[in-house]
Amino acid sequence: MKEAVGYISSTKRHDIEREIELKVQQERIREFCQLNDLECIEIYEEPKESTEDYKSELFRLLDDSSKGKFQHVIVLNLDRIAQDTVAKVWVVDELKKNGIKLHSLTENMSLSPDTDEKIIEKAEKIKEKVRDIPSLPEIVNKVIELVQNPNSSALQLAKLISNDAGLTARVLRLVNSAYYGFPKQISSIQHAIAILGFTTIRGLVLSSSIFRVFAPKDNLVKMLDYKKLWKHSLLCAIIAKHINKILKTYDSENLFSASILHDMGKIILDQYDHGNYILALTDFSDLDLVQNLAVEKKYCGLNHCEVGHLIAEHWNLPEAISETIRYHHAPQEALPEHRKMVTVVAIANIFAHVSQKEIDLEPEFFDNINLELLQLGINEIYDIFAFVKEEIKTETDLEEFFD
Asked: What is residue 7's predicted lDDT score, i.e. its pLDDT?
């Protein structure tokens, strides 16, 4: 059995938050070693007083690597090694010189300096393009401000949305879709707000505007199915709301928006790194969602979670939405105050994928850590799936949304 070591670090200052984050990293590393027949002989934990310029445990690890004490190093992700690109490449290069293989768990791949340098180079190019993405339409920013203002009224929000004929038409089209199943047609924005609530309307406005801003370009090879992605996003949001209703433990005003925007990074990759993203899509696995993140990283330098997070920050979206976009495939990594909401979206995302592919639900599709956090058992899982299957039957044709 080959010998391996782990390296964990945290930038959190609060002791409890830091302890939880380090524990999660340690558990993931030990689990990886067990699954890959590696003997984890030590985990190097960076002390709280370490700085970006001087990481004592990282330097000790590099020194030990030159003495042949182990053959593998496992980290949660490359950012744990360093934030600076040059520093990351230097560490990977030092390990390669010593014959050490580096494994990055969230990227779900083994990294050599050559592949890592290419990935980092691609990532930097994507980040440059993201900086040039336009701001959200003015009306969307105003809607966000109104929704977040506790003194705002439904009438104010209705008047604002009604000033944009295109936006009004799209929101009413969605509200009257079979997804919501109202017996009578809703003909006014104010009526829609009264029934659905401020935060759901915000989610619809956000998503409808974003999907319109990034409508598929005619000159691109159509590999990413935008209409299918839209339906998946909306279904995920509906399932997340249903799960939250079952839990009855908290009420998140950002849940619907976060759910419906969780995959927007895929659209960004398709439009701003189209050639590479086509290669990624052709290499995707049907239901191995984590593996697909690694594939995106391999071809584009960043996965859709990372790109979506960059956009969310660029647009100053609420932190809860930004965290969900970034960690919906790894909820344990989210900030503690948002972890439960991110987990709800992560589970809803799996339900949406399974139902759209029309395959049987298997309990192993879900991470036990996520189920335990929400206190969801097998019976609840199958009850939710029964709800999802009923929802999918009512799926209306939303393709005109892109017309």
From this structure: 97
Q: How much of the chain exceeds pLDDT 90, in percent?
A: 22
Q: Which two tokens stand for residue 72?
A: 């593998």
pTM: 0.66
Residue 110 pairs in a beta bridge with 103
| Superfamily name with CATH number, domain 2-105 | Resolvase, N-terminal catalytic domain (3.40.50.1390)
Residue whose tokens read 């190097």: 44
* % pLDDT > 70, the chain: 88
Query: How open is the CA angle 160-161-167, to the nearest 5 degrees?
Result: 150
Give yes or no for a contact between 12 and 18, defined as CB atoms under 8 angstroms apart. yes
CB crowding 143-157: b at 16 or more within 10 Å, else e: bbebbeeeeeebeeb
Domain boundary assignment for the chain: 2-105, 119-135+215-403, 136-213
Please identify which residue in the block is written with the tokens 């647009």: 315
d(CA 358, CA 352): 10
CB distance 268 to 130 below 8 Å: yes
Structure tokens at 122: 């691609």
| Confidence category of residue 113, pLDDT binned at 50, 70, 90 | very low
Is 117 within 8 Å of 89 (Cβ atoms)? yes
User: What's the pLDDT tens digit per position in 286-312?
Assistant: 667 888 898 888 888 889 999 999 888
Burial code of 172-181, b = ≥16 C-beta within 10 A, e = fewer?
A: bebbbbebbe
- Token couple for 397: 């044709």
The second-level CATH assignment, the architecture, of 119-135+215-403 is: Orthogonal Bundle (1.10)
The count of residues in the chain is 403
Relative to beta strand 2-8, strand 72-75 is parallel
What is the structure's pLDDT at 52? 81
Rounded to whole angstroms, the Cα distance separating 138 from 131 reads 18
Within 8 A by CB and 6+ apart from 170, the residues are 208, 212, 401
- C-alpha 21/C-alpha 8 separation (Å) is 9
The tens digit of pLDDT for each residue in 316-366 reads: 888 999 999 999 999 998 999 999 999 999 999 999 988 888 778 887 888
Beta-bridge mates of residue 42? 5
Question: Chain-wide mean pLDDT for the chain?
Answer: 82
If residue 72 lies in a helix (H) or strand (E), which one and from where to where? strand 72-75
Q: Is residue 273 within 8 Å of 126, Cβ to Cβ?
A: yes
